[in-house]
UniProtKB/TrEMBL annotation:
Keywords: Oxidoreductase, Peroxidase. The gene is bpoA. This is Possible peroxidase bpoA. It comes from the Bacteria. Residues 1-248 form the AB hydrolase-1 domain. The keyword Oxidoreductase applies. It comes from Mycobacterium bovis (strain BCG / Pasteur 1173P2). The keyword Oxidoreductase applies.
Length: 261
């Protein structure tokens, strides 16, 4: 099972989910997307969705069989494009975590604004980072130990900055991920995945501002083969908010369609 994180996250976002599926016999693989975590930044400023998907394809070449792809937000878009356009048949199943082609653009703008706000100025301390995150996600408790945030940051001089390449979100990348707003292209990718009889699950955070109920309903009406789980009490970061419910839903879905690999 290959986990693909969202924009501005790292592979560590999947820590508890990966542990939960490993306990059930799955091999869990987590990836830092280009420009994120410990992966290289693109010297060409290439953060097109097709480039993320191509990187993932190269990783999968070194894995046995057909993995199940679990993608959140940006990672979900990359999974759609990889399994439905770049390399159909590469996945045994696809789990879309709080993302659909017709995502709520106002919610996406809110996330972008949060990520872009401190691109240049950074943070004076880890406590300041914790406060900013708590204000952005008031439904989550403030991190009790700010030192745990270091994995999401980089140090330069006496200030902390988000770990990801500023080009990715700062509007200065030569090749930004514009495909995420191409609803028709993403819908076509999902249609190809389903036409190849690859099972698809949509896991929505019930209080998400990215996949609102009407967006989920439209997606499920368009693709009735897609299974659906609504996770109570979770926002856009479903696995982080309710990992127990999230991991259980994914494991149950894969047990019905794929079995342990």
């Amino acid at each position: 099972m290959v986990f693909l994180h969202g924009g501005g996250q790292t592979r560590r976002s999947w820590g508890r989910a990966a542990a939960a599926v490993a306990e059930r016999g799955w091999q869990a693989v987590t990836i830092d997307l280009r420009g994120h975590g410990e992966s290289d930044w693109s010297s060409e400023g290439d953060y097109r969705l097709v480039s993320f998907a191509g990187d993932i394809q190269e990783v999968l070449r070194n894995l046995p069989g057909q993995p199940a792809l679990v993608g959140a937000s940006l990672g979900g878009f990359a999974a759609m494009l990889l399994a439905g356009e770049l390399s159909p048949g590469i996945a045994s199943a696809v789990v879309l975590v709080d993302i659909v082609p017709n995502m709520d653009l106002a919610g996406a703008s809110r996330i972008h604004a949060f990520m872009a706000e401190r691109v240049e100025s950074g943070f004076g301390s880890l406590d300041e980072v914790a406060d900013v995150i708590a204000n952005y996600n008031p439904h989550r408790p403030r991190p009790s130990d700010p030192d745990g945030l270091v994995a999401n940051l980089r140090r330069r001089g006496d200030r902390w900055y988000w770990h990801w390449d500023p080009q990715f979100i700062g509007g200065i990348a030569a090749f930004p991920p514009v495909e995420v707003t191409d609803v028709d292209r993403m819908n076509a990718a999902v249609a190809t995945i389903l036409r190849d009889e690859v099972p698809v699950l949509l896991v929505r955070g019930q209080v998400s501002d990215i996949v609102r109920q009407e967006s989920a309903d439209q997606f499920l009406s368009r693709f009735p083969q897609v299974e659906f789980t609504d996770v109570r009490g979770a926002g856009h970061m479903v696995a982080g908010d309710r990992n127990d419910a999230f991991a259980g839903a994914v494991l149950d879905f894969l047990a019905r369609h794929v079995g342990v690999r």
